[in-house]
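Hey,

Quick one before I head out. I ran the complex with zinc ion overnight. Inputs first:
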Amino acid sequence: MTKTIIAPSILASDFSKLGEEIEAIDRAGADWIHIDVMDGHFVPNLTFGPPIIKSIRNRTDKIFDCHLMIEPVDAYLAAYADAGCDIITVHAEATKHLDRSLQAIRDLGKKAGVALNPSTPESVLEYVLDRVDLVCCMTVNPGFGGQSFIHSVVDKVARIKAMIGERPIDIEIDGGITPQTAPLVAAAGANVLVAGSAVFKGDGEAGYRTNIAGIRKASDDKIA
Ligand code: DX5
Ligand code: ZN
């Protein structure tokens, strides 16, 4: 049986001890580390530049799953690759030439992801499926953690799963994931769950471990 990949979003961590927070979620059972990069232009918030990512790269061996919410994006791909990101995801809405951006990521030796806002139709994926390693379905509008899950995206996840067929493409869900919402998207075909506020609550590492385990169990019971 496929197992859920849990990717805690460090957007919800305590930035005053970012390195320790990454070590804590690593020990607490995170599979990947989700890094939300925001530019104050494509989304109304600002977060991590490449030097910050580089500074935490040696805190864990786990995959750095970098979600770029920046526009334009192509000029910054190499900097995020050099900083140590393993998967680089661009928003379909933030690049004029999606095919070119995805090729550029793979040419840098990284896995290429496409993120879709809640209102973006899955048809944007149709002609790039052979260039994509991951599709990130946003279940909140990007820019902030702690928002409510948008249920209408669940049907879109099922349609994307059907489009992908046997291709080795991960389906990631980002926004409002909890033990209550995780099974809905797992049943629709998702295998990677990003969670920020639902992981980084409670009392440090022990709390994070309980939170990750709760989401994992709720999803593993439903995953295809
Ligand atoms: C939103 C980010 C998400 C966010 C998720 O733009 O892409 O990764 O951190 O946070 P929660 O899990 O709190 O909705
Ligand atoms: Zn994200």
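The chain has one domain: 5-223.

Talk tomorrow,
K.
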